[in-house]
Amino acid sequence: MAQIWAKQFYNSKAWRQLRERLIVENNFLCADCGESYLKDSTQLVGHHIKPLTPENINDANISLNPANIKIICRKCHDKAHERFSFDTGQNVYLVYGAPCSGKSTYVNQLARRNDLIVDLDAIYAAISLSPYHEHPNNLKRVAFAVRDTLIEQIRLRVGFWHDAFIVGGYPRKLQREQLAAKVGAELVYIDSTIEQAKATATLTRGALAKQWHGYIDNWFDAFEP
If residue 20 lies in a helix (H) or strand (E), which one and from where to where? Predict the structure, then answer.
């Protein structure tokens, strides 16, 4: 996983907007393998050609310079970073925020090979033939059971994963704080306005956009800072 000192930068509005702009400018293609990710741009990350360090991360000529950023897919990003070895132990992060706020984008930018990611979107996709981001109601109990099983494995620290990311809405303060305490997780809030979230849903969810607008409305109605 990327170093902790980089988390604030990757969660910043400036970085997220730049990454999204570069993805569009690059036609949703991975610059290394050429694969298209038009249907799921969260699988694309901004790779810094000159690596970020604690000394240069606040230098916009490096960290936010489009000439120093290459849009590549997660698989190619893993390959690009195989030369690095960051053994920071089994840290757990509970990444929460509104639907379409950028939670998966944030995790995909930080996670590395051998990290464990618990994300309902990915779980639904794994157990069905439904398009990514579609949540068939008939599979809800199964999907939630799979999620809860994985969270329990994280709590017990089963396996040899490096870091774990639990991704979800978690609008209720008590719920997320209890879960974080249960699994020993650090809370990471992905901030977004309702307008930004709905704009992202319109851009990325296609025919499901209206349904996701409803999810977004429900989240903001329930959110407790």
Answer: helix 13-25
Angle at 92 between CA 11 and CA 145, to 5 degrees: 105
Residue 131: DSSP 8-state: P
Strand ranges, E, within 8-144 = 44-48, 69-73, 92-96, 116-119
Which residues does 43 contact at the CB level (< 8 Å), separation at least 6?
37, 73, 74, 108
Bridge partners, residue 167, by sequence = 95, 119
Q: Do residues 62 and 50 touch, judged by C-beta distance below 8 A?
A: yes
Over residues 2-47, the pLDDT tens digits come to: 567 788 898 899 999 999 999 999 999 999 999 999 988 888 999 9
At residue 82 the predicted structure's pLDDT band, cuts being 50, 70 and 90, is: low
Token pair belonging to 98:
């509104």
CA nearest to 127, candidates 113, 142, 137: 142
The phi and psi torsions of 47 (rounded to 5 degrees) equal -95, 125
Q: Has residue 157 got a pLDDT over 50? A: yes
Sequence-ordered list of residues with C-beta below 8 angstroms from that of 198, at least 6 positions apart, any chain: 100, 213, 216
Name every residue whose Cβ is closer than 8 Å to that of residue 183 and which is 6 or more positions away in sequence: 92, 94, 151, 154, 155, 164, 166
Contacts for 64 with CB less than 8 Å, ≥ 6 apart: 14, 15, 18
- According to DSSP, the residues that pair with 52 across neighbouring strands are none
